[in-house]
Amino acid sequence: MVSAARELDPTSDRRALDGIAEKLAAIGGAHEGRERGTRLHGLSEFVDRGEVMPAATEQDVADMAAYGIATLDLDVVHIETLVVCDELEVGGTPDRIVQYDGPGPGAGLAAMPARMRASRGLEYAPDWISGHLIADLKTGNVSYGALKMAMQLAVYSRSCLYDHETLIRRPLPPVNQDWGVIIHLPGAATATLYWINLRVGWQGAQLAKQVRELRSVGAKALVPFSSPVT
Q1: Which pTM was predicted?
Q2: Where are the beta strands (DSSP E) in the chain?
Q3: At 118, which helix (H) or strand (E)?
Q4: How far is residue 45's CA from residue 79's CA, in Å, rounded to a whole number?
Q5: Does 3 have pLDDT greater than 50?
Q6: How far apart are CA 207 and CA 114, in angstroms?
């Protein structure tokens, strides 16, 4: 069997492939998971504002009960507030800025050898933390991507509040720049808190800036080969 060849069209072919990928994602339930994550984010805001959830299902109530119990010690100061980091020229929206006063990531580890603490990224983990923290809500799998999350929250912690209409910047509350909090809310009536190391995240963010700058320089690395002038 012989098929007729045709000239490839990168634009239309890419659109066709994107369409196929979108359909496969829908079949695999990707849209459902994304929509559920968006709903969990929205419902959590009602909980933190002390408002009644609209048209809540039994599953919603169970999920938000788990969320409320897990975050009981976190007093919300800001919800979904735009911030900018002028040093890196990036912006974003941390899910929460919270006030916390309680055991830190180093609680109960006084007897652990210093080398073991360092191997776990806990060499500067305090026993107690009191103050403001950046907290971000994640509804997907958090088993991977810890560095990405650490970078994201580290940048938030070094940003300032930003009004995109007036372009006015205001300082954040004095947030902890060493540690932040990940609120994992996957549904199924479960919620778990994790400490996230922002020192490591800031190292990654600065390295990413260097790579971005190097790419712009690297674009000029290839120049035409010219024959000697005779």
Answers
A1: 0.81
A2: 75-79, 83-85, 90-92, 96-103, 128-138, 160-162, 169-171, 179-187, 190-197
A3: helix 114-119
A4: 7
A5: no
A6: 27
